[in-house]
Design a protein that fits this description.
The protein is of the alpha/beta class and 210 residues long. The protein contains eight helices and eight strands; from the N terminus they run αβββαβααβαβαββαα. A hairpin with a 2-residue loop joins β2 and β3.
């Protein structure tokens, strides 16, 4: 039997929940302040000379905007033939088609980019049932120019006519916080059940991606 939270009266629960709510509201205000700083970041000009390979041919970075003013790019790790990053897979599993439609309505396009060859990408997309736009940056310096190297990264771009600028990028936990499933699990009694979490003794935990 797994350990469980302590059972208390409704009055005790309301009191403890109210105390936690104070901390949650404080964190929300801090995140609002960080978002305000993010909107004031300067931007850097980015090249448009990358030749990405898509399922229907070559595409430029400007093409990925699909005429919209902004573009979100997730860099999916390339772990070699037949090997796929479990974290990138989990992230992509959390990107719903209707979510991309909602972004598009706000003027933001989405593209997942990987150094994997397009044939490997298309095979894995079919296996996972993904329909979101994926292109290969194989043979280009795009990942290195973004600062992703061999890792994963989320970058935001803005265009002014045909000129492209990068406005933001984040990796590691900055990407992790976007996952729907992780956000819901963070609200649950047992959390993500991963061994890095600060959980009470006896809570179920396992290695991340394990």
């Amino acid at each position: 039997m797994m350990e469980k939270p302590q059972v208390v009266t409704a009055e005790e629960w309301e009191r403890e929940r109210a105390e936690l709510l104070v901390a949650e509201k404080r964190a929300t205000r801090e995140l609002d302040a960080i978002a305000a700083r993010r909107r004031r970041l300067p931007m850097v000009r980015f090249a448009n000379d990358y030749a990405f390979e898509g399922p229907s041919g070559k595409r430029s970075l400007l093409d990925l905007f699909e005429g919209r003013p902004e573009l979100a790019v997730y860099q999916f790790m390339d772990n070699g033939p037949g090997h796929f990053c479990p974290g990138c897979t989990a992230f992509t599993d959390n990107v719903p088609d209707h979510g991309l439609e909602m972004l598009a309505a706000s003027g933001i396009s989405w593209a997942t980019v990987s150094n994997m060859p397009i044939e490997q990408i298309e095979g894995y997309k079919a296996e996972r049932g993904w329909t979101l736009p994926f292109v290969s940056s194989h043979g280009t310096t795009f990942a290195d120019d973004c600062g992703a190297g061999g890792g994963f990264l989320l970058s935001m771009f803005l265009r002014d006519g045909d000129e492209i600028f990068r406005t933001y990028s984040t990796g590691q936990r900055g990407v992790d916080r976007l996952l729907f499933s992780n956000n819901v699990r963070d609200l649950s009694a047992y959390g993500r059940q991963e061994d890095w979490e600060d959980s009470p003794g006896g809570w179920p935990q396992h290695p991340t991606y394990g």
